User: Fold this.
Amino acid sequence: MAQHIGIVACSGEGAALCYQTICLEGSERMGPHNHPEVSLHNHPLAEYMKFITRDDWAGVAELMMSSAEKLARTGADFLICPDNTIHQAFDLVAHRSPRPWLHIAQVVAGEAKRQGFHRVGVLGTKYLMEGPVYPERLQAAGLLHGTPSAPERERINQIIFDELVYGKFLPQSLAYFTEVIRRLKDEACDVVALACTEIPLLVPAEVSPLPVLDSTRLLARAALRKAIED
Assistant:
């Protein structure tokens, strides 16, 4: 019997993509219309942003713990969070969580290593691109990383919060992301991590100048493997 997956959600679009991936790809692994049991809890993104904008990761951790406790009571066997940015609070949560977690950046780093990449371009919110979440996990896997310039980080962040989290995927924004990825390629990145869970909805792999590591779907697939194989 497959384990029960608990999703600690933050932004709606990314959480929906993660949930949908588990359901659709679960049927490929388990048979028609079948997938592991899934529960999701979501504090409003606005509540998270109150703490993130103040650089208060302990406050973020308390919201994550609140979701973790609710999901544990619901029966979840382990937890995932399809939001890269709030993983900056992960170490404040994991050791006291009622259930074990998968770490999104560790999953992405493992896939980059498995595919033989060497230097990962990281795209996400400015908090993610300027924070320790990916540098630490990529370095632990023996990988290098690159990030956009400061003006690019600001523009990417604006697109994420003004458009993507609201389900707006505009051609001009896709063109901008493509331009940034092309520049990362010129700086010797051989793959790009779409490390905001909404970015894969804007940037399909087939139009990216670099191969992509889709953090949302990679986390969903890792959860599927754990739920089914463990």
